[in-house]
Write a structure and sequence with these properties.
The chain is of the alpha/beta class. The protein has 34 helices and 22 strands. Helix 11 (325-336) links the parallel strand 9 and strand 10 (345-349). Helix 8 packs parallel to helix 9 (274-286), helix 11 (325-336) runs parallel beside helix 12 (357-368) and helix 15 (424-433) crosses helix 16. The chain starts with a helix and ends in a 6-residue tail after the last strand. It binds adenosine-5'-triphosphate (ATP) and zinc ion.
């Protein structure tokens, strides 16, 4: 037998088994294969010495068989032979359809059987999958053994519908007169199914709503020219899926036990292989290999078609696109139709957390009536966002973060395949940094590979904004040595070279742990080792431990903060205060003891040689109970000076230096209450405008949440008290919400809180996190400020001078307007409702307050919304 003509890529035994399996697996109700079964039974399969296959009809009457096919309308695709005459013929070249001809040892082209069909009856355009398949075959050729370029054939057994000898690339150019012919697959189509619906299900009747499945992202995930390493090394079999053994085992077992569910849900952290697994599973469901536990084989017709992106029965659906009810219904309608070629129709819906509730409902209800060949695979990194009912109806598979060791070994293999040299430490670092996401790790490797053929640790550091160990040790030494200005300078330098603050904190923490464990990172110079020493005293160990604690808390803060650099600097300045300094010049601990005289109940700024010694890390502060002690003048001046120094605006600096004074700092309930005095009402107003900057500066210096109280200097106050109003005592607070409440807000975004000022009767804001009350010297300007639940946060008891606000507003009193504005700012920030004293109409608020009104829900005492 002519091996060249009948070379085949898959052993014949597998072909036959696959054929039988396809028949047996299919749902009888949709098993259009059954319509072909009698025909198939009449086929004669023979293998030749070259593992090739010959197929023939037993009754020796091919024409009869094909006319049978034709009359039953099973065939509406056919083999095309492009030749000089536009004759359409059923061309079975390599698989000898016809009288079994064992006499094929000659070079003559194989016998052909041509059947003419009427033009109308047949779709006669070139079918894309065939082209793809042909390309795919060429592409996959190296995978296959025993191929003969001249008479390359493969077989097709698809979806039970088709038995299609196909793809004959013939150099002989005989019969049809061209060098290559390819066959169309025969497929069963019910006469009432619209071809368009089948081919492009969502095109139906609405061109605007076209969804080109092929264009959906990821529809052709296995690109010939991958754009990234991650795409190139996208796993194509369960074996290649790293670190998800349990999932792999259960999916394989579902296939081998033929217990295929209709709805799967793959969930877990990003970059862990969910989408890849969905694709592999889809391929495995349709794979024709007989080795059930090795599916998808990557070699059978189905696999080739799938991995080349040409499968018509596996579709990746864009979650956003099917959120339109119409589209979703079309999708379900499409799913009802039998598969085009394959055994199963699989829909992969990635990012399914983006599906609307209605879409879920449509899918879930639609699925109930769907035939057994339909499988939906939902993929999401965020299970919590899915409706419970949907989750309950799915078979769920959780993907774990990929272990570092697995990531390292995978990266190593990729490097070898890509011809990259690498340091093991570099890969280790990448693995650690990628936090269980293999995709992230591969992407980083990809990026690094563009910079050089060797992946070194220093390269990785550079790309990731990581400090080298030497630099790290220098910084730690400076921080622990109580050298504030050098520490700040060095930190700034590092930040300028785009070091990631979080990364730096984590590196410092690791370094400290290493030192505590008596080990220094490799490559640290001896000089530096000596700096920190390996034989640490008890005091030093304690200092390092405390420093570690500070860093670990700082890391948490940095994660929720926008102003990371400042927090980082503040944390570094606190490291030396956490114990004995390394240069032995000062003993910060004794200083700390002054600050925490007893059990940490009270702390206040006291004299000390360094400001940072007097700062206690906000994060380590326990709840400091109420206190009341005025601070040393000298120290307060120092704090004030430093706070002014870090304000960026020079005019503000000058103003604060000249007009303002920090008169006290008290720590209460974890908040530093800073009282400022200004020497004139105008200065108070001005300071109020810049309160955020001032509070933030103080916060940085004090390392605490700050509540700011801006007062008129007491000597002036008397004078002003005599006037009708005192509006200058409003205080505001910048606090770290995360410490007091569960609400997420950025630490550095100061939260404005207006508290009852010190001149008014004591306010008892049980509200804890949000105290909102303002008053003007005993007269409540606004009766209540409510939070978004509508609960009053604090209610002014005093009888308001109802005519006052109106009067003031009408007079457009600048100070009054300022205060109105402040209150409205608060209300805006806090999303409050503002209630007005009875009789006061919101629109009487003149000036600056009015524009803010537009954004507020304002309710007056009569309940009328303005
Ligand atoms: N478990 C894994 N085994 C092998 N490769 C993996 C694995 N996880 C991720 N990858 C690599 O990362 C790429 C992307 O993976 P995939 O899209 O499957 O992850 P995912 O979990 O679906 O991510 P996402 O939730 O962000 O969509 C793959 O092409 C592959 O190279
Ligand atoms: Zn296969």
């Amino acid at each position: 037998m002519d091996g060249r003509r009948h070379s085949v890529d898959v052993p014949i035994s597998r072909t036959l088994i696959a054929l039988r399996r396809v028949r047996s697996l299919r749902d009888p109700s949709t098993n259009s294969m059954s319509k072909l079964s009698s025909l198939i039974d009449n086929f004669n399969w023979e293998t030749n010495s070259n593992n090739a296959i010959t197929l023939g009809f037993e009754n020796d009457s091919p024409n009869h068989n094909f006319s049978q096919l034709r009359s039953s309308k099973i065939l509406n695709d056919h083999e095309l032979c492009y030749g000089s005459t536009p004759q359409r013929s059923l061309h079975v070249e390599s698989l000898n359809v016809g009288p079994l001809n064992h006499d094929t040892g000659n070079e003559a082209p194989s016998e052909r059987y041509c059947v003419d069909y009427g033009e109308k009856e047949l779709g006669f355009n070139c079918n894309e999958p065939e082209e793809i398949l042909m390309q795919a075959e060429k592409k996959h050729r190296p995978m296959r053994k025993g191929l003969n370029r001249k008479h390359d054939i493969s077989y097709r057994v698809t979806g039970g519908d088709v038995l299609s000898p196909r793809l004959s690339i013939s150099d002989t150019g005989s019969s049809c007169g061209i060098s290559s012919c390819w066959s169309r697959s025969m497929k069963y189509r019910d006469s009432n199914l619209l071809p368009d619906v089948e081919e492009r299900p969502l095109l139906l009747g609405n061109t605007e709503e076209n969804i080109d499945w092929k264009l959906d992202s990821g529809a052709r995930p296995y690109l010939e020219t991958p754009r990234s390493l991650s795409q190139k090394f996208m796993p194509k079999s369960f074996d290649e899926l790293v670190g998800q053994n349990v999932v792999v085992r259960s999916l394989l077992s579902a296939i081998s036990n033929r217990r295929i569910n209709s709805l799967y849900l793959l969930h877990g952290p990003p970059g862990t292989g969910k989408t890849s697994a969905a694709r592999i599973f889809a391929a495995a469901l349709n794979c024709l290999s007989s080795e059930i536990d090795r599916v998808p084989c990557g070699m059978c017709q189905e696999c080739i078609l799938f991995f080349s992106g040409g499968s018509k029965d596996v579709k990746e659906v864009d979650s956003v696109k099917i959120n339109r009810v119409q589209r979703c219904k079309l999708l379900i309608k499409n799913a009802e139709m039998p598969p085009v070629y394959s055994r199963f129709k699989v829909y992969i819906i990635d990012e399914c957390q983006l599906l609307h509730r209605k879409t879920w409902d449509t899918i879930l209800s639609g699925m109930e009536g769907l035939p057994g060949h339909v499988v939906f695979i939902m993929v999401t990194p965020d299970l919590d966002k899915l409706p419970c009912v949907a989750v309950a109806k799915c078979q769920r598979y959780h993907f774990q973060k990929v272990k570092e060791v697995d990531i390292i070994s995978r990266l190593g293999r990729i490097c070898v395949e890509e011809g990259l040299d690498f340091d093991h430490d570099a890969l280790k670092f990448i693995a650690t940094k990628s936090n269980g996401s293999l995709r992230d790790a591969e992407m980083m490797l990809d990026q690094l590979s563009l910079l050089g053929r060797k992946i070194t640790l220093s390269l990785v550091y550079e790309v990731n904004g990581v400090v080298s160990d030497d630099e790290l040790l220098d910084l730690l030494y400076l921080a622990l040595s109580n050298d504030a200005s050098s520490t700040v300078k060095r930190t700034r330098e590092l930040m300028r070279s785009r070091i990631d603050p979080l990364q730096l904190v984590s590196q410092l923490a690791n370094l400290i742990m290493d030192i505590l464990a008596g080990k220094f990172p490799d490559g640290v110079s001896d000089a530096r080792r000596k700096l920190l020493g390996t034989d640490n005293s008890e005091a030093e160990i304690q200092q390092l431990s405390r420093a570690l604690k500070i860093l670990s808390q700082t890391e948490k803060q940095l994660r929720i903060s926008k102003n990371q650099i400042t927090w980082l600097t503040a944390a570094l300045l606190q490291l030396s205060s956490s114990g004995t300094s390394h240069d032995g010049t000062s003993d910060a601990r004794s200083s700390m003891q002054t600050l925490h005289p007893q059990d940490g109940d009270f702390q206040s700024i006291s004299t000390g040689e360094s400001l940072k010694q007097s700062v206690v890390c906000a994060c380590e502060s326990a709840v400091y109970e109420k206190t009341g002690m005025r601070d040393g003048e000298e120290n307060l001046e120092l704090v004030w000076k430093r706070a002014i120094a870090i304000c960026t605006s020079s005019s503000l600096k000058k103003f604060l230096q000249k007009r303002g004074k920090l008169v006290s700092v008290r720590h209460t309930q974890g908040i530093a209450v800073a009282e400022l005095e200004f020497n004139s009402p105008d200065s108070v107003s001005k300071a109020e405008k810049s309160w955020k900057v001032i509070a933030t500066a103080l916060q940085h210096i004090l390392g605490h949440n700050v509540e700011l109280r801006i007062n008129l200097a007491s000597n002036n106050c008397t004078k002003f008290k005599k006037s009708s109003l005192n509006l200058f005592n409003c205080s505001r607070r910048v606090h770290l919400k995360s410490q007091f409440s569960s609400e997420n807000s950025d630490v550095t975004t100061p939260t404005t809180v207006i508290t009852r000022d010190k001149y008014s009767e004591s306010c008892s804001p049980e509200c804890g996190s949000r105290i909102s009350h303002t008053c003007c010297h005993g007269k409540d300007l606004f009766k209540t400020i409510r939070n978004n639940d509508g609960n009053a946060l604090s209610i002014g008891e005093s009888t308001p001078d109802r005519s006052l606000p109106e009067k003031m507003a009408n007079q457009n009193h600048p100070k009054y307007v300022l205060n109105i504005k402040a209150v409205f700012e608060v209300a805006l920030l806090e999303n409050c409702h503002v209630s007005f004293p009875e009789g006061m109409a919101a629109d009487t608020l003149a000036g600056n307050g009015r524009e803010l009104l537009a954004n507020l829900t304002v309710v007056n005492d009569y309940g009328a919304a303005k």
